[in-house]
Amino acid sequence: MKTVKVYGPGCKRCEATAKLIADAAARHGTQISLEKVSDPKAIAMAGVMSTPGVSIDGKLVHAGGLPEEAKVEGWFA
User: Fold this and answer.
1) Are 31 and 37 in contact (CB under 8 A)?
2) In which order are the strands placed within the sheet that holds 2-7?
3) Long-range contacts of range 31-36, CB-CB < 8 Å, 24 or more positions apart?
4) pLDDT in tens, 4-56
């Protein structure tokens, strides 16, 4: 199981990013634990300078703006 965290204040882009991730993981049959992190201090501690940010298993893989669907698919391929 992969641990995925979406960092952001809960904006529409953050929600859309979480949905993209959940949908891509389901298509690839990958089980994930999806956590939304909205605490500004936790976001800064993760090294996210612009949101939404995404980490998978503790590694920051995206920050700033809605990730492209192909990029998200690659995380679970």
Assistant:
1) no
2) 32-37, 2-7, 53-56, 59-63
3) 31/1, 31/2, 32/1, 32/2, 32/3, 32/4, 33/1, 33/2, 33/3, 33/4, 34/4, 34/5, 34/6, 35/3, 35/4, 35/5, 35/6, 36/5, 36/6, 36/8, 36/10
4) 999 999 899 999 999 999 999 999 999 999 999 999 999 999 999 999 999 99
User: Which CATH code fits 2-76?
Assistant: 3.40.30.10
* DSSP H or E segment with residue 31: none
Domains of the chain by residue range: 2-76
User: Looking at residue 46, what is its pLDDT?
Assistant: 95
